[in-house]
């Protein structure tokens, strides 16, 4: 622990701010570079004899887990211009325009210190945001109200903090595709967010679906009942003529009366045999 003592002594001598951070379930965040399989865990429905689970993330007790975790962490830190050095412990530092930031990493513990309060605060916020988005992404397939409310809080924070924590390292990056709004990302779930401006009473979301069932099939949509809003799906029937065919539809949300709490429901597409459910959440933002 000589390295820790040396860095702590430097921070005290220079009267720098110093913080300790802990990463929860650190080894579960690592990504595998090779294929790793495990036996089916107890309670999981067994398939054919000899079947196994292919791991996408590392687990505790695996030999690769510490290395996978560190590679994930170091990749994230280097994206925000932290260079790495090895001094017994892994150390990352950044020095730009007189601002110095240092990060010591020991397994899942981080010591953060430097000579600029704002730089330290932005670094801590960057890690908190990355963790929040990582957790929220696990519920994309079937989000509940609490998940949407958490996502709205993250978005509203970013809206109120322009220029912080979301970095475009290469200013020349371009995108060939355009979206009418964030809700047009082709996720299974639909999120209609009405802004603070009460003059905005309509939100439209587009989706594209692929037929993975019988080549010829026809799906009718059933819409949940929502308080304070009318929901219209066009077209209300999707008629597929071949497998893997793609069809698009749009959903229009029209406010009748703004609600104080989010409304949750779903669109369910039925063909008489199959049901395909798309969760829906409707939120009315209130002024900060």
UniProtKB/TrEMBL annotation:
Listed InterPro entries: DNA/RNA_pol_sf, RVT_2, Subtilisin-like_FN3
Gene3D superfamilies to which the protein is assigned, alphabetical: 2.60.40.2310
Keywords: Hydrolase, Protease
GO molecular function: peptidase activity
Pfam family of the protein (one): fn3_6
Record carries keyword Cell inner membrane: no
Reverse transcriptase Ty1/copia-type domain location: 3-139
Domain Subtilisin-like protease fibronectin type-III span(s) in chain numbering: 184-282
GO biological process: proteolysis
PANTHER family, A to Z: CYSTEINE-RICH RLK (RECEPTOR-LIKE PROTEIN KINASE) 8, GAG-POL-RELATED RETROTRANSPOSON
Protein name per its UniProtKB record: Subtilisin-like protease SBT1.3
